[in-house]
Structure formats: structure tokens, C-alpha cells
Amino acid sequence: MTGYRQILAVPGMAPLLGVSFLARTAITAVVMALTMYVVLGLDMGYVAAGGAAAALTTGLALGGPLLGRVIDRRGLRTVLLATVLVQAVFWLSVPILPYGALVGAAFAAGLLMVPAQPVTRQAITAMTTAEQRRAAFALESVQGELSYMVGPAVVILCAAQVSPGVVAWGLGAAIVAGGTGIAWLNPPLRTEDETDVVGAVGRPPRREWLGVGMFAVLTMAFGTTVLLSGVDLAIVATLEEAGQVSWAAVVVAVLGVASVAGGLIYGALSRPLPTWLLLGLLGLVTIPVGLAPDWRWLCVAVVGTGFLAAPTLSAVAGAVSRLAPAGVRGEATGLQSSAQSAGFALGSPIVGVAIDVSVPAGGFAAAGLAGVAAALTGCLLSRRCPEPPDIEPATSAARRAPSKG
């Protein structure tokens, strides 16, 4: 764990991860909060709730590269303060908006969501050396897993105790606090050397960086989240058929804990593994999970999936950081977030179709095969355009050498 202590000792890293965790935990719960409000607050059905959630998710998917491009051009604080203002207005207005206006506002709120996740990834790239970066991205992936475990659960618990309108206000307050905290910290998104280079040569055209290699990584980012969101649905369907759906929360918790453990172990390894290999293994271990006969065996079966989840997400983030020039890093990480958001949005419907036409175990098979297909695609594309080595300028590495502890 020495490597992780060194990462947290980097000036500004621990506060950034703490504030980012607050924002990301709240952001992971926005779909659940909106669903609960439409169902409980407006007394409408789940179809209507799905429409509002879809509008928000669509906005999230489209907004990533847009906000990233503005960050590259205008700077971090401008974007953060603008998005914080939008989120404050939206979540304060949720309890008074009629359904039609709520759907439109949800799309706008998703489009201009506080970019906590991509900003954290950019800052990690700028604040760490090449040798520290894999462990740092592993911590970021673990942070993401913890936020997904905590955020929706807290919203569900609170919605059972207070009105969904109050939950919406609390969630909005957390997003605003997290975004304001990141703006106050104002972490660097480029090293000094990168800033000088960007100032001298300007922004590189997309054809120079958005090529085969980047498409390979984005495909694998999409495939990873298709698999993970599909697994969540398959768990519920499998346990519902067995009459044990009340144990779904326990299985999902085991999945999350295994992912956290896998991410920490992967970050401590001396050598990285190819992204396509991690995703391929993730898909292969997921395919047979549906053979588990009850919730106890399902807890055992999902350990492999969980163990490889955070390492795969960490490898994707690391690959994007290597392929993206400093001048377009915001747009590139925004594209990564969009690809992952699209995967989360499409994973459940894809796996749901597989469950409907076969058996619940077919959901795990479909999710695993989606991951394997994305891994094979990424592997083939990567062979056409190998990733550049993760090397930073010597002057930058020397300047930050004391931060290694």
C-alpha cells in the first residue's frame, strides 16, 4: 500500500479525491432520485419515470465532450461554476415543475452536469508521474465503485423517510457542494510543460488524436459499462425467478466489495495488463454466473466479475490519458464519460431482451458476450494503432520527483 500513500501525499490529491467523491456519489444517484420523485411525488408510473430518467441520461451522454471542450478552451472554474449554477436551479425547481417541463429540464441538467469524474481523471494525469498513474487511476475507479454503492442506496433510504422533493433538494445541495469544492481547489489539468506546449502549438485537430486507437478504447469503455449495468439487471431477474429477490442487495454489495478489492490489488501491481485482456477476462467470468442456483452461490459467482470490474475501468482511464494530447484532454475524457454513460443506458435493455427471450441466466451470458465482443474489437483496433508509451517529459518528472515520497 506504499504506492497509495505516495499518491495521497501528492499535494492537493487527497482533498480532490474527497470532494470529488461527494460530487460523484450524488451524481450517481440522480437517476434514482428523479425516478423516485416521479413515482412518489407526482404519483405517476414507471414508464413516465423512465422517460424523465432517459432525458437526464441522454443529456449526460451528450454533455461530456461538450463540457470537456469548453474546459480545454476556457478553463476549469468557468465550467464548474456555470454547471453548479444550473444544478442549483434545476434541483430547487424539481418539486414545482409539471412533468413535461421536468423532462425538458432534466435533459438540460444532464447536459450541464458538474463534470466531477472527467475533471478528476484529468487532474490525476496532471498531478502524478507516469509511475504513479496506474495506482492513482485505480484509486479513482475504487472511488467510482464506492459512489455507486452509496449514492442510490442513500436516496432510496431517504425517500422512505422524507418527501421525494426534499430528497431532490438534498441531492442538489450535495452536487453543488462537490462542484464548488472542486472549483475552490482548482486542481491543475496540465503540467507546466504541457501548458507551455499547448500555448505554443495550440489545440491539435481531431484527426490527429481521435483515430483508431482512441476508438478502440472508447469501444471498450462502452462495452465495460454495458456488461456492468446488464449484470445488475440479471442479478435481480435471477433472484426473482428463485423467489429470493430480497437478497439482491446482498449480492450487489458483494459485487461492489470484490470490485474495490480488485481495483486496489491491480493498482499495486508492478506491471499493467492490456485493457482488452482485462475486459475479455471480465466477460468470460461473467458468462457462467447465471448457473448459480441460489443467492449464496450467486454471491460466490459474482466475485470474479467484481474483482475485474474496477481494474478494467482503471485501465480504460489510463489508456485515454495516454492517447489524448494535453490540449484536448478535457474533450477526450468527456468522450470516455459519454461512452460509459451510453453503455450504462443500453446495457439493461440489451440484457433485458436476452432475459425475455431465454432465461435469467441468459442475461449474464448476454452481458459477458457483450464484454468479450468489445474486448475483441478493441484488441483488433489496437493492433492497427498501438498505444504510445506512458512517458512524460523528463523535466516534469524531475520536478515532481520529491512527491514520490
UniProtKB/TrEMBL annotation:
It comes from the Bacteria. Pfam families: MFS_1. Keywords: Membrane, Transmembrane, Transmembrane helix. Signal peptide: none annotated. Residues 386-405 are annotated as: Disordered. The chain crosses the membrane at residues 21-40, 46-68, 99-116, 166-185, 212-239, 245-266, 273-291, 297-320. The keyword Metal-binding does not apply. This is MFS transporter. It comes from Streptomyces albidochromogenes.
